[in-house]
Amino acid sequence: MFRPLQLFIGLRYTRAKRRNHFVSFISLSSMLGVAIGVWALITVMSVMNGFEHELRARILGMVAHATVTSYDGPMKDWRDVVGKLEKRPHVVGAAPFVHGEVMLTRGHQVNGALIRGIDPSLESHVSKVTKHIVAGSIDRLKPGSYGIVLGSGLAAQLGVGVGDTVTMVTPEARVSVAGVLPRVRRFSVVGLFSVDMSQYDRTLALIDLQDAQKIFRTGNGVSGVRLEFDDMDAAPRLARAAANSLPGIYQVTDWTMHNRNFFKAVKTEKTVMFVILMLIVGVAAFNIVSTLVMVVTDKQADIAILRTLGATPGTIMGVFIIQGAFIGAIGTLIGGVVGVVTALNVETIVPAIESLFNIHFLSPDVYMISELPSRLETLDVVHIVIASLVLSLFATLYPAWRAARTAPAEALRYE
Fold it and tell me: Disulfide engineering: 335 pairs with which of 39, 101, 212, 323, CB 3.0-4.6 Å?
Protein backbone atom coordinates (compact mmCIF):
# COMPACT_ATOMS: atom_id res chain seq x y z
CA MET A 1 0.00 0.00 0.00
CA PHE A 2 1.40 3.40 -1.04
CA ARG A 3 1.87 5.96 1.71
CA PRO A 4 1.87 9.78 1.25
CA LEU A 5 5.69 9.69 1.21
CA GLN A 6 5.82 7.77 -2.06
CA LEU A 7 3.14 9.97 -3.58
CA PHE A 8 4.86 13.20 -2.53
CA ILE A 9 8.32 12.21 -3.75
CA GLY A 10 7.04 10.52 -6.94
CA LEU A 11 5.10 13.62 -8.03
CA ARG A 12 8.03 15.89 -7.07
CA TYR A 13 10.39 13.87 -9.27
CA THR A 14 8.22 14.58 -12.32
CA ARG A 15 9.52 18.14 -12.11
CA ALA A 16 13.19 18.68 -12.87
CA LYS A 17 15.66 20.49 -10.72
CA ARG A 18 17.13 23.72 -12.00
CA ARG A 19 20.34 21.97 -12.90
CA ASN A 20 18.65 19.35 -15.10
CA HIS A 21 15.77 20.26 -17.36
CA PHE A 22 16.45 17.40 -19.75
CA VAL A 23 14.69 14.86 -17.53
CA SER A 24 11.62 17.12 -17.43
CA PHE A 25 11.68 17.36 -21.22
CA ILE A 26 11.81 13.56 -21.55
CA SER A 27 8.90 13.24 -19.11
CA LEU A 28 6.90 15.75 -21.16
CA SER A 29 7.68 13.94 -24.43
CA SER A 30 6.61 10.62 -22.90
CA MET A 31 3.37 12.18 -21.71
CA LEU A 32 2.81 13.69 -25.15
CA GLY A 33 3.47 10.34 -26.82
CA VAL A 34 0.84 8.61 -24.70
CA ALA A 35 -1.62 11.45 -25.40
CA ILE A 36 -1.08 11.24 -29.17
CA GLY A 37 -1.49 7.47 -29.14
CA VAL A 38 -4.75 7.57 -27.16
CA TRP A 39 -6.05 10.47 -29.27
CA ALA A 40 -5.31 8.63 -32.52
CA LEU A 41 -6.85 5.40 -31.23
CA ILE A 42 -10.11 7.00 -30.11
CA THR A 43 -10.45 9.05 -33.29
CA VAL A 44 -9.64 6.22 -35.71
CA MET A 45 -11.81 3.66 -33.90
CA SER A 46 -14.70 6.13 -33.86
CA VAL A 47 -14.33 6.75 -37.60
CA MET A 48 -14.23 3.01 -38.29
CA ASN A 49 -17.32 2.53 -36.11
CA GLY A 50 -18.96 5.29 -38.13
CA PHE A 51 -18.04 3.59 -41.39
CA GLU A 52 -19.43 0.27 -40.20
CA HIS A 53 -22.65 1.82 -38.92
CA GLU A 54 -23.13 3.94 -42.03
CA LEU A 55 -22.46 1.07 -44.41
CA ARG A 56 -24.76 -1.23 -42.48
CA ALA A 57 -27.52 1.39 -42.46
CA ARG A 58 -27.16 2.08 -46.18
CA ILE A 59 -26.94 -1.56 -47.16
CA LEU A 60 -29.96 -2.47 -45.05
CA GLY A 61 -31.73 0.56 -46.44
CA MET A 62 -31.69 -1.20 -49.82
CA VAL A 63 -31.47 -4.84 -48.74
CA ALA A 64 -34.23 -6.39 -46.65
CA HIS A 65 -33.47 -8.01 -43.31
CA ALA A 66 -34.61 -11.35 -44.76
CA THR A 67 -35.90 -12.79 -48.01
CA VAL A 68 -38.26 -15.73 -48.44
CA THR A 69 -38.23 -17.44 -51.85
CA SER A 70 -39.68 -20.57 -53.40
CA TYR A 71 -37.57 -23.56 -54.32
CA ASP A 72 -39.27 -24.20 -57.66
CA GLY A 73 -39.49 -21.02 -59.67
CA PRO A 74 -41.71 -18.02 -59.02
CA MET A 75 -43.72 -17.89 -55.79
CA LYS A 76 -47.36 -18.22 -56.81
CA ASP A 77 -48.96 -17.99 -53.36
CA TRP A 78 -47.14 -14.82 -52.38
CA ARG A 79 -50.31 -13.01 -51.26
CA ASP A 80 -51.00 -15.68 -48.63
CA VAL A 81 -47.33 -15.66 -47.63
CA VAL A 82 -47.31 -11.88 -47.18
CA GLY A 83 -50.52 -12.00 -45.15
CA LYS A 84 -49.20 -14.70 -42.81
CA LEU A 85 -45.77 -13.13 -42.40
CA GLU A 86 -47.20 -9.73 -41.55
CA LYS A 87 -48.98 -11.32 -38.59
CA ARG A 88 -45.75 -12.76 -37.20
CA PRO A 89 -44.29 -11.12 -34.06
CA HIS A 90 -41.33 -8.79 -34.66
CA VAL A 91 -42.21 -8.46 -38.38
CA VAL A 92 -42.45 -4.78 -39.27
CA GLY A 93 -43.24 -5.23 -42.94
CA ALA A 94 -43.42 -7.70 -45.82
CA ALA A 95 -43.40 -6.91 -49.53
CA PRO A 96 -43.21 -8.98 -52.73
CA PHE A 97 -40.58 -8.36 -55.37
CA VAL A 98 -39.45 -9.53 -58.80
CA HIS A 99 -35.82 -9.20 -59.79
CA GLY A 100 -33.82 -9.72 -62.96
CA GLU A 101 -30.86 -8.49 -64.97
CA VAL A 102 -31.26 -6.41 -68.10
CA MET A 103 -29.50 -3.92 -70.32
CA LEU A 104 -30.64 -0.30 -70.42
CA THR A 105 -29.89 1.79 -73.48
CA ARG A 106 -30.23 5.44 -74.37
CA GLY A 107 -28.87 6.40 -77.73
CA HIS A 108 -25.33 5.03 -77.86
CA GLN A 109 -25.14 4.54 -74.10
CA VAL A 110 -25.55 0.96 -72.89
CA ASN A 111 -25.42 -0.16 -69.25
CA GLY A 112 -26.22 -3.35 -67.41
CA ALA A 113 -28.73 -2.98 -64.59
CA LEU A 114 -30.45 -4.94 -61.85
CA ILE A 115 -34.21 -4.52 -62.08
CA ARG A 116 -36.36 -4.83 -58.99
CA GLY A 117 -40.10 -4.97 -59.43
CA ILE A 118 -41.81 -3.55 -56.36
CA ASP A 119 -45.20 -2.60 -54.99
CA PRO A 120 -44.79 1.14 -54.29
CA SER A 121 -47.36 1.03 -51.49
CA LEU A 122 -45.42 -1.68 -49.60
CA GLU A 123 -41.81 -0.85 -50.48
CA SER A 124 -41.43 1.68 -47.66
CA HIS A 125 -42.13 -1.14 -45.18
CA VAL A 126 -38.98 -3.07 -46.13
CA SER A 127 -36.52 -0.48 -47.48
CA LYS A 128 -35.62 3.19 -47.17
CA VAL A 129 -35.32 3.90 -50.88
CA THR A 130 -38.41 6.12 -50.74
CA LYS A 131 -36.51 8.45 -48.40
CA HIS A 132 -33.68 8.84 -50.92
CA ILE A 133 -35.69 9.98 -53.95
CA VAL A 134 -33.93 13.06 -55.32
CA ALA A 135 -36.16 13.70 -58.33
CA GLY A 136 -39.62 12.60 -59.36
CA SER A 137 -41.61 10.19 -57.20
CA ILE A 138 -41.76 6.47 -56.64
CA ASP A 139 -45.57 6.75 -56.44
CA ARG A 140 -45.59 7.37 -60.19
CA LEU A 141 -44.84 3.69 -60.75
CA LYS A 142 -48.23 2.49 -61.97
CA PRO A 143 -49.15 -0.93 -63.46
CA GLY A 144 -49.04 -0.77 -67.23
CA SER A 145 -47.43 2.69 -67.37
CA TYR A 146 -43.93 1.20 -67.67
CA GLY A 147 -42.27 3.80 -65.53
CA ILE A 148 -38.82 3.32 -64.04
CA VAL A 149 -36.91 4.83 -61.12
CA LEU A 150 -33.14 4.87 -61.72
CA GLY A 151 -30.20 5.20 -59.40
CA SER A 152 -28.55 8.59 -59.80
CA GLY A 153 -25.28 7.07 -61.00
CA LEU A 154 -27.03 4.88 -63.55
CA ALA A 155 -29.04 7.85 -64.81
CA ALA A 156 -25.85 9.89 -65.16
CA GLN A 157 -24.18 7.14 -67.16
CA LEU A 158 -27.15 6.93 -69.49
CA GLY A 159 -27.49 10.72 -69.63
CA VAL A 160 -31.18 10.78 -68.70
CA GLY A 161 -33.41 12.56 -66.22
CA VAL A 162 -37.02 12.54 -65.13
CA GLY A 163 -39.27 12.58 -68.21
CA ASP A 164 -36.75 10.91 -70.53
CA THR A 165 -37.11 7.39 -71.87
CA VAL A 166 -34.78 4.40 -71.77
CA THR A 167 -34.95 1.11 -73.60
CA MET A 168 -34.83 -2.12 -71.63
CA VAL A 169 -33.35 -5.21 -73.31
CA THR A 170 -33.99 -8.49 -71.49
CA PRO A 171 -31.78 -11.57 -71.88
CA GLU A 172 -34.74 -13.68 -73.02
CA ALA A 173 -35.20 -13.73 -76.77
CA ARG A 174 -38.36 -14.08 -78.82
CA VAL A 175 -38.72 -15.94 -82.09
CA SER A 176 -40.24 -14.08 -85.03
CA VAL A 177 -40.30 -14.33 -88.80
CA ALA A 178 -37.19 -12.18 -88.77
CA GLY A 179 -35.37 -14.68 -86.57
CA VAL A 180 -34.45 -14.69 -82.90
CA LEU A 181 -34.74 -11.17 -81.51
CA PRO A 182 -34.15 -9.81 -78.01
CA ARG A 183 -37.17 -8.67 -76.05
CA VAL A 184 -37.22 -4.87 -75.90
CA ARG A 185 -39.43 -2.47 -73.96
CA ARG A 186 -39.32 1.29 -73.61
CA PHE A 187 -39.65 2.81 -70.14
CA SER A 188 -40.24 6.36 -69.01
CA VAL A 189 -38.02 7.69 -66.21
CA VAL A 190 -40.33 8.82 -63.38
CA GLY A 191 -37.82 9.21 -60.58
CA LEU A 192 -34.20 9.15 -59.42
CA PHE A 193 -32.80 7.94 -56.11
CA SER A 194 -29.41 8.36 -54.48
CA VAL A 195 -28.19 6.44 -51.42
CA ASP A 196 -24.55 7.55 -51.85
CA MET A 197 -23.43 3.97 -52.52
CA SER A 198 -22.19 3.24 -56.01
CA GLN A 199 -23.16 -0.41 -55.54
CA TYR A 200 -26.81 0.64 -55.84
CA ASP A 201 -26.75 4.09 -57.42
CA ARG A 202 -25.00 2.78 -60.54
CA THR A 203 -26.70 -0.59 -60.98
CA LEU A 204 -30.22 -0.65 -59.52
CA ALA A 205 -33.50 0.39 -61.12
CA LEU A 206 -37.04 0.02 -59.81
CA ILE A 207 -40.22 -0.69 -61.79
CA ASP A 208 -43.77 -1.61 -60.88
CA LEU A 209 -44.35 -5.19 -59.72
CA GLN A 210 -46.89 -6.04 -62.41
CA ASP A 211 -44.69 -4.57 -65.14
CA ALA A 212 -41.82 -6.70 -63.87
CA GLN A 213 -44.01 -9.82 -63.93
CA LYS A 214 -44.72 -9.16 -67.61
CA ILE A 215 -41.11 -8.34 -68.47
CA PHE A 216 -39.66 -11.44 -66.78
CA ARG A 217 -42.65 -13.66 -67.55
CA THR A 218 -43.36 -14.80 -64.01
CA GLY A 219 -47.12 -14.79 -64.55
CA ASN A 220 -48.87 -14.05 -61.27
CA GLY A 221 -45.81 -15.16 -59.31
CA VAL A 222 -42.99 -13.16 -57.78
CA SER A 223 -39.34 -13.86 -57.08
CA GLY A 224 -39.94 -13.76 -53.33
CA VAL A 225 -41.03 -11.78 -50.29
CA ARG A 226 -38.79 -9.33 -48.46
CA LEU A 227 -39.10 -8.94 -44.68
CA GLU A 228 -38.25 -6.19 -42.22
CA PHE A 229 -37.88 -6.94 -38.49
CA ASP A 230 -37.85 -4.69 -35.45
CA ASP A 231 -34.39 -6.03 -34.53
CA MET A 232 -31.96 -6.50 -37.40
CA ASP A 233 -29.43 -8.32 -35.20
CA ALA A 234 -32.04 -11.02 -34.53
CA ALA A 235 -32.84 -11.36 -38.25
CA PRO A 236 -31.28 -14.86 -38.68
CA ARG A 237 -33.36 -16.34 -35.85
CA LEU A 238 -36.55 -14.48 -36.73
CA ALA A 239 -36.25 -15.32 -40.44
CA ARG A 240 -35.95 -19.06 -39.75
CA ALA A 241 -38.90 -18.95 -37.36
CA ALA A 242 -41.00 -17.07 -39.94
CA ALA A 243 -40.15 -19.57 -42.70
CA ASN A 244 -40.93 -22.54 -40.44
CA SER A 245 -44.36 -21.09 -39.73
CA LEU A 246 -45.31 -21.23 -43.42
CA PRO A 247 -46.95 -24.31 -44.96
CA GLY A 248 -44.75 -25.86 -47.59
CA ILE A 249 -41.04 -25.57 -48.22
CA TYR A 250 -39.40 -22.19 -48.68
CA GLN A 251 -35.86 -20.93 -48.85
CA VAL A 252 -34.95 -18.13 -46.45
CA THR A 253 -31.87 -15.91 -46.44
CA ASP A 254 -31.03 -12.96 -44.21
CA TRP A 255 -28.81 -9.91 -44.52
CA THR A 256 -25.95 -11.50 -42.57
CA MET A 257 -25.66 -14.24 -45.21
CA HIS A 258 -25.46 -11.77 -48.09
CA ASN A 259 -22.91 -9.47 -46.42
CA ARG A 260 -21.19 -11.77 -43.92
CA ASN A 261 -17.73 -11.59 -45.50
CA PHE A 262 -17.93 -7.83 -45.81
CA PHE A 263 -18.72 -7.21 -42.15
CA LYS A 264 -16.18 -9.83 -41.07
CA ALA A 265 -13.57 -7.94 -43.08
CA VAL A 266 -14.57 -4.67 -41.40
CA LYS A 267 -14.33 -6.29 -37.96
CA THR A 268 -10.91 -7.74 -38.77
CA GLU A 269 -9.72 -4.37 -40.06
CA LYS A 270 -10.86 -2.69 -36.83
CA THR A 271 -8.96 -5.24 -34.75
CA VAL A 272 -5.78 -4.86 -36.80
CA MET A 273 -6.04 -1.07 -36.71
CA PHE A 274 -6.46 -1.17 -32.92
CA VAL A 275 -3.31 -3.28 -32.55
CA ILE A 276 -1.30 -1.08 -34.93
CA LEU A 277 -2.29 2.17 -33.24
CA MET A 278 -1.77 0.67 -29.80
CA LEU A 279 1.88 0.35 -30.81
CA ILE A 280 2.03 4.15 -30.65
CA VAL A 281 1.08 3.94 -26.98
CA GLY A 282 3.61 1.12 -26.62
CA VAL A 283 6.39 3.32 -28.01
CA ALA A 284 5.35 6.06 -25.57
CA ALA A 285 5.51 3.48 -22.77
CA PHE A 286 9.09 2.68 -23.77
CA ASN A 287 9.77 6.42 -23.46
CA ILE A 288 8.48 6.20 -19.90
CA VAL A 289 11.01 3.42 -19.27
CA SER A 290 13.78 5.65 -20.62
CA THR A 291 12.57 8.57 -18.53
CA LEU A 292 12.51 6.59 -15.31
CA VAL A 293 15.90 4.99 -15.97
CA MET A 294 17.39 8.48 -16.38
CA VAL A 295 15.62 9.69 -13.24
CA VAL A 296 16.90 6.69 -11.26
CA THR A 297 20.43 7.39 -12.44
CA ASP A 298 20.04 11.10 -11.63
CA LYS A 299 18.59 10.41 -8.17
CA GLN A 300 21.10 7.80 -6.98
CA ALA A 301 22.20 9.97 -4.06
CA ASP A 302 18.63 10.78 -3.08
CA ILE A 303 17.71 7.09 -3.14
CA ALA A 304 20.71 6.23 -0.99
CA ILE A 305 19.80 8.91 1.57
CA LEU A 306 16.21 7.66 1.73
CA ARG A 307 17.47 4.13 2.28
CA THR A 308 19.77 5.24 5.13
CA LEU A 309 16.79 7.05 6.70
CA GLY A 310 14.86 3.81 6.80
CA ALA A 311 13.01 3.67 3.47
CA THR A 312 12.41 0.09 2.35
CA PRO A 313 12.97 -1.21 -1.21
CA GLY A 314 9.17 -1.29 -1.53
CA THR A 315 8.99 2.40 -0.70
CA ILE A 316 11.59 3.22 -3.36
CA MET A 317 9.70 1.15 -5.91
CA GLY A 318 6.50 2.97 -5.02
CA VAL A 319 8.12 6.35 -5.65
CA PHE A 320 9.05 5.55 -9.23
CA ILE A 321 5.91 3.55 -9.99
CA ILE A 322 3.88 6.60 -8.99
CA GLN A 323 6.04 8.86 -11.13
CA GLY A 324 5.66 6.67 -14.24
CA ALA A 325 1.95 6.06 -13.61
CA PHE A 326 1.41 9.81 -13.22
CA ILE A 327 3.05 10.47 -16.60
CA GLY A 328 0.91 7.76 -18.24
CA ALA A 329 -2.30 8.88 -16.49
CA ILE A 330 -1.92 12.53 -17.48
CA GLY A 331 -1.05 11.58 -21.06
CA THR A 332 -4.04 9.22 -21.21
CA LEU A 333 -6.35 11.89 -19.78
CA ILE A 334 -5.21 14.51 -22.29
CA GLY A 335 -5.38 12.09 -25.20
CA GLY A 336 -8.78 10.81 -24.09
CA VAL A 337 -10.32 14.27 -23.83
CA VAL A 338 -8.87 15.45 -27.16
CA GLY A 339 -9.82 12.14 -28.83
CA VAL A 340 -13.43 12.30 -27.63
CA VAL A 341 -13.76 15.94 -28.74
CA THR A 342 -12.24 15.11 -32.14
CA ALA A 343 -14.44 12.03 -32.62
CA LEU A 344 -17.57 14.02 -31.82
CA ASN A 345 -16.66 16.71 -34.35
CA VAL A 346 -15.15 14.73 -37.24
CA GLU A 347 -18.08 15.65 -39.51
CA THR A 348 -17.23 19.32 -38.94
CA ILE A 349 -13.43 19.14 -38.88
CA VAL A 350 -12.95 17.09 -42.06
CA PRO A 351 -15.12 19.29 -44.36
CA ALA A 352 -13.31 22.37 -42.97
CA ILE A 353 -9.92 20.83 -43.85
CA GLU A 354 -11.19 19.80 -47.31
CA SER A 355 -12.47 23.32 -47.94
CA LEU A 356 -9.27 24.93 -46.65
CA PHE A 357 -6.92 22.86 -48.82
CA ASN A 358 -9.37 22.28 -51.69
CA ILE A 359 -9.11 18.49 -51.50
CA HIS A 360 -11.57 15.61 -51.13
CA PHE A 361 -10.49 12.68 -48.98
CA LEU A 362 -13.18 10.20 -50.09
CA SER A 363 -14.05 10.48 -53.75
CA PRO A 364 -17.53 9.10 -54.53
CA ASP A 365 -16.07 7.58 -57.70
CA VAL A 366 -13.79 5.36 -55.62
CA TYR A 367 -15.34 4.84 -52.20
CA MET A 368 -18.75 3.55 -51.20
CA ILE A 369 -19.12 6.46 -48.75
CA SER A 370 -18.04 9.95 -49.79
CA GLU A 371 -18.22 11.53 -46.31
CA LEU A 372 -16.16 10.68 -43.24
CA PRO A 373 -18.57 9.45 -40.54
CA SER A 374 -17.84 9.04 -36.84
CA ARG A 375 -19.54 7.05 -34.10
CA LEU A 376 -18.07 7.27 -30.61
CA GLU A 377 -18.51 4.06 -28.60
CA THR A 378 -18.11 4.36 -24.83
CA LEU A 379 -16.81 0.79 -24.57
CA ASP A 380 -14.02 1.53 -27.05
CA VAL A 381 -12.93 4.58 -25.04
CA VAL A 382 -12.89 2.51 -21.85
CA HIS A 383 -10.81 -0.25 -23.48
CA ILE A 384 -8.32 2.24 -24.91
CA VAL A 385 -7.92 4.11 -21.61
CA ILE A 386 -7.47 0.90 -19.63
CA ALA A 387 -4.94 -0.48 -22.15
CA SER A 388 -2.96 2.79 -22.04
CA LEU A 389 -2.91 2.86 -18.22
CA VAL A 390 -1.85 -0.80 -18.03
CA LEU A 391 0.99 -0.26 -20.52
CA SER A 392 2.15 2.84 -18.65
CA LEU A 393 2.07 1.01 -15.32
CA PHE A 394 3.87 -2.00 -16.77
CA ALA A 395 6.60 0.30 -18.13
CA THR A 396 7.42 1.51 -14.61
CA LEU A 397 8.21 -1.91 -13.14
CA TYR A 398 11.80 -2.42 -14.34
CA PRO A 399 13.11 1.09 -13.54
CA ALA A 400 11.40 0.98 -10.13
CA TRP A 401 12.88 -2.45 -9.40
CA ARG A 402 16.31 -1.20 -10.44
CA ALA A 403 15.95 1.83 -8.14
CA ALA A 404 14.98 -0.43 -5.23
CA ARG A 405 18.19 -2.42 -5.67
CA THR A 406 20.41 0.67 -5.30
CA ALA A 407 23.09 0.09 -2.66
CA PRO A 408 23.42 3.20 -0.41
CA ALA A 409 27.18 2.74 0.13
CA GLU A 410 27.91 2.49 -3.56
CA ALA A 411 25.69 5.45 -4.43
CA LEU A 412 27.26 7.74 -1.79
CA ARG A 413 30.86 6.72 -2.40
CA TYR A 414 31.65 9.62 -4.72
CA GLU A 415 29.29 12.20 -3.21
Answer: 39
